[in-house]
Inverse folding.
């Protein structure tokens, strides 16, 4: 998940590490969906190259580049994969937040018949959206703009209902995508 | 993937680390399926808990328990997840090779409508099989035996055709499961 760094955030406002909060909200929701046998969606571990081990302790290792997206799993028999993005902007999600290989992966999953989307948080507004890759691609390829505007997300995305547990009812939005 | 350790294997025969060979064969097959836009199936990274980082170098970390299976992905819109198991036995796959949480996870995916199975290698015989969770469960729950017999696998599983690239045509067997 690519988000503004904690230090930068703390300097500028009091919202703390919104990226980690988003991750924690999604993990909570996935736990709820799993416990209720609605879906199984998992955060992928970051791949790490281990180069030295002493007993059970890893003493030398490196982070490897993640080639896929943040979350993947199964919902209504279908394969689901999505990337979670958080922005402090109140008007748009900058494209620089989304890496090229992430777009390519969204595209691959879409073409194989999977459900691929972005889960977007506007942290200052406390708003969450599901925006399908299909809609992003239509917009992205036609536009020279440097971000996905909030108006576009309001029009083509689905707003996520918030609660206590699950924190984010994001599969309700996926139901709408499937229609 | 749970396999006999390299040292033990090298002492006992000349087959080398069959577990790693199986992994490499599956990775090669997945690469083929991915490049030909047939499926996207990925080996899950082993989760590692990082507790100390110096710059870009991880200097202290621990392996965490894998709660899911070896491989997961998308094929024909469906979610697919499987565990690869290698045995030197020529007559059966010992159940001790399959951990309880792995059975539970196969069960979860099956109940959510996913495709869940074991990919079994009889390394000495150079034979590979796809055995669906559904069949394993029928057998497992009825039997007090300590292994899945090869005869059972021959009867209820599907033998995987071998080639150069892909090494293992295991999705042909999945097609049979889907019928």
């Amino acid at each position: 998940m690519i988000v503004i760094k904690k230090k930068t955030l703390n300097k500028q406002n009091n919202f703390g590490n919104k990226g980690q909060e988003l991750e924690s909200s999604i993990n909570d929701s996935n736990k709820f969906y799993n416990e209720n046998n609605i879906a199984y969606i998992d955060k992928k571990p970051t791949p790490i190259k281990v180069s030295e081990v002493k007993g059970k302790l890893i003493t030398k290792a490196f982070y490897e580049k993640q080639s896929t997206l943040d979350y993947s799993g199964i919902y209504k028999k279908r394969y689901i994969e999505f990337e979670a993005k958080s922005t402090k902007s109140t008007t748009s999600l900058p494209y620089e937040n989304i890496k090229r290989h992430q777009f390519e992966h969204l595209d691959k999953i879409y073409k194989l018949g999977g459900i691929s989307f972005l889960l977007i948080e506007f942290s200052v507004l406390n708003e969450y959206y599901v925006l399908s890759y299909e809609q992003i691609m239509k917009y992205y390829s036609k536009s020279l703009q440097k971000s996905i505007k909030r108006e576009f997300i309001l029009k083509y995305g689905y707003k996520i209902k918030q609660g206590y547990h699950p924190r984010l009812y994001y599969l309700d939005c996926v139901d709408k995508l499937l229609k």
In short: Strands of chain B lie at 39-43, 48-54, 57-63, 71-75, 78-87, 92-94, 115-122, 127-132, 147-149, 158-159. Confidence is low (pLDDT under 50) at residues 1-16 of chain B. Chain B has six helices and ten strands.
